[in-house]
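Hi again,

Forgot to attach this to my earlier email, sorry! This is the prediction with uracil bound. I've pasted everything inline since the attachment limit keeps bouncing my files.
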Amino acid sequence: MGKTDVTVIDHPLVQHKLTLMRMKDTPTAMFRELLREISLLLLYEVARDLPLVMREIETPLEKMDSPVLGGKKLCLISILRAGDGLLQGMLDLIPSARVGHVGLYRDHETLEAVEYYFKVPHSLGDRLSIVVDPMLATAHSSIAAVNRVKAAGAKNLKFVCLLAAPEGIKTFTKAHPDVPVYTAAIDRELNDRGYILPGLGDAGDRIFGTK
Ligand code: PRP
Ligand code: URA
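Structure tokens for the complex follow:
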């Protein structure tokens, strides 16, 4: 068993918005906007330990040394397509972030992740890479994405999702014990088709209105 480094972001605003997202009658536009709002709140917590450096500035009254973000720009890596629902809000908060994409879909029969696209920035080894996807179900997609991002050079990684299944967390932390997981909730279980229960349904379909 791998070490479990899992943070549940249980802020009341996150929990309230997540409840609205779970409701089956929440329309596409509202679902998308709620996900964008939650993504800001999740990143706020995930970014808590970003390094700061002191910079000399001048206020209208005097000089001072004041903290600004230090180190290389971080990289947000979206697992397509549902990851893009988290990406936009996070970019609003950190506009200078670099962005990568891993295109994966789950084979409906085997639930294995099938890759169809991969593009990430160079020099990932010097940056914090935050891999984002709303759903951590079997963990096949997140494990495959992190495998690829590590192979591209990333050494400092975090994984951020909205909902996780206990089975997925166990599998992911075993495969990648060095990658902390952040989620808004850990649900009860997976059903026999690999969907999270009670969950919120198919995240991609709900974000993009494809069902
Ligand atoms: C969903 C979701 C994750 C994956 C999670 O994507 O966005 O990527 O399932 O399931 P897992 O943990 O069992 O791998 P999906 O394959 O439906 O593709 P989509 O984002 O294109 O809709
Ligand atoms: N992917 C989804 O979009 N929803 C689930 O419940 C599981 C995987």
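The radius of gyration is 18 Å. Residues 28-46 form the longest helix (19 residues).

That should be everything now.

G.
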